[in-house]
Structures are given as structure tokens and as C-alpha cells.
Design a protein that fits this description.
The chain is of the alpha+beta class and 138 residues long. The chain folds into 2 domains: 57 residues, Nucleic acid-binding proteins (OB fold (Dihydrolipoamide Acetyltransferase, E2P), Beta Barrel); 53 residues. 30% of the residues lie in helices and 25% in strands. The protein contains 2 helices and 5 strands. It has a 5-stranded antiparallel sheet. A hairpin with a 4-residue loop joins strand 2 and strand 3. The longest helix has 21 residues. The protein is elongated, with a radius of gyration of 19 Å.
């Protein structure tokens, strides 16, 4: 069972349904959360994918989340990480022909993988804690 997101953590979420006072979201890791309309943008609808910040837990134990409290820097960081993970996944799925009789050279894929690892480390240090939403889904 995946860990519950911590308060202050950013998570990608998809709107499952609209309720009278908010929206039910599917957070990464099969967790459901609740987005009060006071913390949501006006244009939210079923199927919308958003980056949310966990601001607490409701009496049912669901994470309460906010879109309004996600800063532009947070949003840019989340998009960068999603793009980096997608790139790394497509890179790792790529097969490479063996080097025959050639001197071993550092491949572009290895340099990119090292760069992605360094970029993730810098962003984790910037946040001051490891970020669970950055991990790949297994």
C-alpha cells in the first residue's frame, strides 16, 4: 500500500467527480483526495488533471488538497519532473546496438541519465526533503 501524502507535498491528481461542495480526486498511488471549491480554480471539471498541494486530512482520512496554494515555481517544478520521468522511461526502454570492435565511448543516454539524476537531487535539496511524487510508478 502506498504511503499517504504528507501535508505540504505536491501531487498530480485527476478529477473523478464533482460534489456539491468540492471535487473528488484520484491522487497518484490510488489514493482519493478532496478538493474544496474554495481551493479550486473556476474552470475545474471531471477529467481535469491538476497539481495539488496537500493541506490536511478530512474526517474520512482523505487528503484535503488545494490548487490555489500551488505556486508558479511549484507548478514549473512538477512539470519538469514529470517530463524528466517520461524522458527517462522512454530512454530506458530503448535498446542499443552492441559496440563491435570500437573503443568504449560514453553514450549520450548515460550522460542524460546522469544529468536527470543530478537534476532530481538538486530539486530534492531545494525542497529540503525527499519528494514521493517524483518516484516512478512501479
Amino acid at each position: 500500500m502506498p504511503e499517504k501524502p504528507r501535508i505540504g507535498e505536491l501531487v498530480w491528481a485527476k478529477v473523478l467527480e464533482l460534489a456539491p461542495n468540492g471535487a473528488i480526486l484520484e491522487l497518484e498511488g490510488e489514493e482519493q483526495g478532496f478538493l474544496p471549491f474554495s481551493e479550486a480554480p473556476a474552470e475545474i471539471g471531471v477529467g481535469t488533471e491538476v497539481v495539488v498541494k496537500v493541506i490536511g486530512y478530512d474526517p474520512r482520512g482523505r487528503p484535503l488538497v488545494s490548487v490555489r496554494r500551488v505556486s508558479e515555481a511549484d507548478l514549473e517544478e512538477a512539470r519538469f519532473h514529470r517530463e524528466a520521468l517520461e524522458f527517462r522511461n522512454s530512454l530506458s526502454a530503448r535498446s542499443l546496438p552492441p559496440l563491435e570492435g570500437k573503443k568504449e565511448v560514453e553514450r549520450v543516454e548515460w550522460r542524460l541519465a546522469r544529468w536527470l539524476s543530478q537534476a532530481e537531487g538538486v530539486l530534492r535539496r531545494r525542497r529540503g526533503r525527499p519528494s514521493l511524487w517524483l518516484e516512478e510508478k512501479e
